């Protein structure tokens, strides 16, 4: 059962019995959490949860808040993981295989999942932020495109604190002292006027900007700081948009 709302999606299934039985006690032992607005997560139906990305442990902490409010989160995962016993487990858990060589397959699979009633979690930046001070960097269009294609609500989430447990690109968690994980969920981003328009790049960019603005505002609320006037742009800064920014940028 979720801590704040009973599980809403019928039969739990063995993969989630295993995951919750193992992962949640570890998180409770290593973190404290402050959830604000979690009751906004819909009790049923498809939706997009759009977060900023600060640590490789984020998927676990995001799953924690979604689970606490009675839903199962779905993530996009590399198709190569869906082999053997691990693949069986991931499929049974409702995760989404994505073949990155197949072009639009990630988008198509995410749209299908939302239309079938799943909560799909999207890290809008596409990678852990490269902003040196941890603020969200420029967003990618995935969450906006899914929301526009499905008409499903997209809930912005600002989060902070996971990087204290596992710093970005580190393999060494900081296990001394329970770290405070803060998440604040905002109201659905209003995209109704854009949904009825042709989903041109300009329209998708408008939707992405609205989502990012909402996320940055929530992060600012958590941090009690003024956000940058302009989001960090990896391209302008000359760093890789994905992966470890300390590694040499591929300019080919």
UniProtKB/TrEMBL annotation:
The keyword Acyltransferase applies. One of its GO terms (cellular component) is plasma membrane. CDD domains: LPLAT_AGPAT-like. GO terms for molecular function: 1-acylglycerol-3-phosphate O-acyltransferase activity. GO terms for biological process: phosphatidic acid biosynthetic process. Residues 227-236 have a biased composition (Basic and acidic residues). Residues 227-252 are annotated as: Disordered. The keyword Acyltransferase applies. InterPro entries: Plipid/glycerol_acylTrfase (IPR002123). Keywords: Acyltransferase, Transferase. PANTHER family: 1-ACYL-SN-GLYCEROL-3-PHOSPHATE ACYLTRANSFERASE, POSSIBLE ACYLTRANSFERASE. This is 1-acyl-sn-glycerol-3-phosphate acyltransferase. It comes from Nocardioides luteus.
